[in-house]
């Protein structure tokens, strides 16, 4: 079960959107607890992705309700999305960001239900890092934050292979902005004394168990990795126990983010009989 904030982050929507879809009967929470706290199941992610895909295709919410009632298949959605993508490629540069969203939905739908990427369990030791904190609303701002971190933390004492890390906080009250800590791990014995405004040294806490999955590709496609983790969690035996981490193992090699390799780590709270 996921809080409305965690579910919103996995699907890259706002909690306000989820409440709106609930009011319209498009996507009803699995449970509503005391005080109106909504919780969702991983199995509801495909339904939400269908709603978002149809919305990107230009359908009204009433039309989406009718299409969902008629059980549009993933194959039909993929065909419709590919057609929309071809049309979008002919539009002005201002439409480029919309096109990338459609591509992300296509990537999601192509693996929904049969994503075979490996989820591994491992421990993560504590580490010292230099980080800053910011709110981002999309890939453009995330890219700008990465550029800021790279510029501030590009020299000594950092080694060329010092990892970049993002800590993504659960947006329980998120309404379009994502709270992110972004920084770089200090080498063992390294000391950072530069006076970069907004940056500070801190300890990145250890975790006894995290579920980790590797994603190769642009950061815009990271929701596919989060979907793989959600599918794995849906089997039971574990639940999220803290904010997710995104560890950049290989920086992007081109302007479109190609060549990037990211490990998404989700701290776990294991229960009796859970995975080992």
Automatic annotation (TrEMBL):
Domain of life, source organism: Bacteria
Write the record's keywords in alphabetical order, separated by commas. DNA-binding, Repressor, Transcription, Transcription regulation
UniProt-recorded name of the protein: MerR family transcriptional regulator
Domain HTH merR-type intervals: 1-70
Give one GO molecular function term: DNA-binding transcription factor activity
Any one Pfam family match given in the protein's UniProt record, by short name: MerR_1
Alphabetical list of InterPro entries matching this protein: DNA-bd_dom_put_sf (IPR009061), MerR-type_HTH_dom (IPR000551), MerR_fam (IPR047057), Reg_factor_effector_dom_sf (IPR011256)
- UniProt KW Repressor keyword: yes
User: What species is given as this protein's source?
Assistant: Deinococcus arcticus
- The yes or no answer to whether the keyword Lyase is present is no
Q: Which SUPFAM superfamilies match?
A: Probable bacterial effector-binding domain, Putative DNA-binding domain
Database matches in PANTHER family: MERR-FAMILY TRANSCRIPTIONAL REGULATOR, REDOX-CYCLING DRUG-SENSING TRANSCRIPTIONAL ACTIVATOR SOXR
